[in-house]
Predict the structure.
Amino acid sequence: MKRVIESALCVYSLAVASLAAVAGPAPAPAELPPGPGRNTVVRVCGDCHGVDLIEGRRTRSQWRELVEDMVSRGANASEDDTKAVINYLATALGRVNVNKASESDIETVLELASPEAAAIVSYRTTAGDFKSIDDLKNVPGLDFSKVEAKKDRITFAGQ
Ligand code: HEC
């Protein structure tokens, strides 16, 4: 009887081991920062290549273009998935053109208070485009040290 149990256990553990071999190692946790829509990115964007390919900072339009390219290559994303993915990337891995971006993208990507983001938009509307980070010093009510700390997320040209 003991032998039967032992061999049954043995078969069981072999089965578990081969299952694990088929399933492969658990996928490495993605290096994507937390944020709404992250799970959708992992589900939709991990089909053909690792999500570790998704890195760097881009503007919303640049991310949109990339995601549309991936959808045209066959990424399995509903319209809602596509929106969620673009929103996630535009904020969690976003860069903003302070001369063009929406108030809400400026607020989220640069982690500003909403009146500060509003002040940037209203300043550019009256005074014209910002040419460099120093121009942001002129925006009333904006804590310049906050934008300075996020300067790798700011651009002044492009979409
Ligand atoms: C149907 C397969 C497929 C899916 C699903 C897919 N991709 Fe891709 N992806 C590709 C292929 C193929 C390439 C290589 C394209 C090239 O560079 O020629 C690529 C390349 C990339 C690159 C590197 C090129 C670049 O412009 O930086 C990024 C980033 C990327 N994909 C992001 C994503 C994102 C975000 C998603 C989810 C919306 C996604 N991919 C889903 C097929 C896919």
About this structure: Strands lie at 96-97, 154-155. Helices lie at 2-23, 38-45, 60-72, 79-92, 103-109, 114-127, 144-149. The CA atoms of residues 42 and 49 lie 11 Å apart.
